[in-house]
TrEMBL record:
<dbReference type="GO" id="GO:0008270">
    <property type="term" value="F:zinc ion binding"/>
</dbReference>
<dbReference type="InterPro" id="IPR013149">
    <property type="entry name" value="ADH-like_C"/>
</dbReference>
<dbReference type="Pfam" id="PF08240">
    <property type="entry name" value="ADH_N"/>
</dbReference>
<protein>
    <submittedName>
        <fullName>L-iditol 2-dehydrogenase</fullName>
    </submittedName>
</protein>
<feature type="domain" description="Enoyl reductase (ER)">
    <location>
        <begin position="8"/>
        <end position="231"/>
    </location>
</feature>
<keyword id="KW-0862">Zinc</keyword>
<dbReference type="InterPro" id="IPR002328">
    <property type="entry name" value="ADH_Zn_CS"/>
</dbReference>
<dbReference type="InterPro" id="IPR020843">
    <property type="entry name" value="ER"/>
</dbReference>
<dbReference type="Pfam" id="PF00107">
    <property type="entry name" value="ADH_zinc_N"/>
</dbReference>
<keyword id="KW-0560">Oxidoreductase</keyword>
<dbReference type="InterPro" id="IPR036291">
    <property type="entry name" value="NAD(P)-bd_dom_sf"/>
</dbReference>
<dbReference type="InterPro" id="IPR013154">
    <property type="entry name" value="ADH-like_N"/>
</dbReference>
<dbReference type="InterPro" id="IPR050129">
    <property type="entry name" value="Zn_alcohol_dh"/>
</dbReference>
<keyword id="KW-0479">Metal-binding</keyword>
<comment type="similarity">
    <text>Belongs to the zinc-containing alcohol dehydrogenase family.</text>
</comment>
<dbReference type="GO" id="GO:0016616">
    <property type="term" value="F:oxidoreductase activity, acting on the CH-OH group of donors, NAD or NADP as acceptor"/>
</dbReference>
<dbReference type="InterPro" id="IPR011032">
    <property type="entry name" value="GroES-like_sf"/>
</dbReference>
Length: 317
């Protein structure tokens, strides 16, 4: 099979490698595609702790495809089933997954891309946020995750304030149902605008979905007394400082919404399958850029640089 191997900072090769073989309780997937995750960007940049070359397909973890072969003892699936899965070497034409971490895709999703891991992640973050009808919610950062959370929060009956840097993202937030949009330009102007919109009370829930220091600081400022600050951004570039005085004074509940239990990941993934298959959620407009495997480097660079109109890249095979 063909697989991508990162050979150094910002460097990639496509090589022919042996097909992986499924062991007991595993299936092999002939992949149709894999989403590109912002968490790939730090390894792509080549920090000191990164080891090159990567394993074939390494870093890819947002895969969907068709069951191609099954290991001993697998009875839940059949060859030919179209599935989404938690896999971890999916920048390749094939990958292996434990059967417990594979979900069958219904016919209603036939032909549609389905990067299951980030879709499931969005559903889990929404559950952890405990959003209810009548609440005012601020979402700081409207990328793929923030856009889905905007739609889910609006469907739950919340009033949604979307805050983001790019005009494209603000337009998207409106399309996903945001009641108010605010350019992420001036820290204090944003705080004053949200204060004005909420009668001075600020927001019951604030979701930070950027993964940088300033948006995290801003998100805390927008959270009302006894509100919940939900950290959904992936903070992977070093330590953070927090305004503990503010967190104490307002009595904030701070929720790190990143799951690590694969069973909970799978619960969210299955909820995403149900929501999209039923028409409750339509992420199709969020997949803005598609690349073949041999242009994975371009996909990673676009995810880093975020040109106008970019939201989510998919690598397809």
């Amino acid at each position: 099979m063909r697989a991508a191997i990162l050979t150094g900072p910002g460097q990639m090769e496509i090589k022919e490698v042996a097909l992986p073989e499924p062991g007991p309780g595993q299936v092999r997937l002939r992949l149709e595609g894999c989403g590109v995750c912002a968490s790939n960007l730090t390894p792509w940049a080549g920090p000191d702790w990164m080891q090159f070359p990567t394993e074939p397909g390494g870093l890819g973890h947002e895969a969907w495809g068709v069951v191609d072969a099954m290991g001993e003892g697998v009875k839940e699936l059949s060859v030919g089933d179209r599935v989404a899965a938690l896999t971890y070497k999916s920048y390749a034409e094939y990958d292996i997954a434990d059967v417990d971490f594979v979900a069958r895709l219904p016919d209603a999703l036939s032909g549609q891309p389905f990067p299951g891991e980030p879709l499931g992640c969005a559903m889990n973050i929404f559950q952890r946020s405990e959003i209810e009808a009548g609440q005012t919610i601020a979402i700081v950062g409207i990328g793929f995750l923030g856009a889905i959370l905007t739609r889910l929060a609006k469907d739950a009956g919340a009033r949604v304030i979307a805050i983001s840097r790019r005009p494209f993202s603000l337009d998207l937030a409106r399309q996903m149902g945001a009641d108010e949009v605010i350019p992420m330009e001036d820290h204090y102007a944003i705080i004053e605008r949200v204060k004005e919109l909420t009668g001075g009370a600020f927001c019951e829930r604030v979701i930070e979905a950027v993964g940088k220091q300033w948006p995290l600081d801003l998100a805390a400022e927008l959270t009302r007394e006894r509100g919940k600050l939900i950290v959904a951004g992936y903070h992977q570039d070093g330590p953070r400082q927090v305004n503990m005085w503010l967190w104490n004074w307002r009595g904030l509940d701070v929720i790190n919404a990143h799951e690590r239990d694969p069973k909970i990941y799978m619960q969210g993934l299955r909820e995403a399958i149900d929501a999209i298959a039923s028409g409750q959620l339509d992420p199709s407009s969020l997949y803005t850029h598609t690349y073949p495997l041999d242009r994975l480097n371009e996909a990673l660079n676009a995810t880093r640089d975020r040109p106008d109109g970019f939201l989510k890249a998919l690598v397809t095979f």
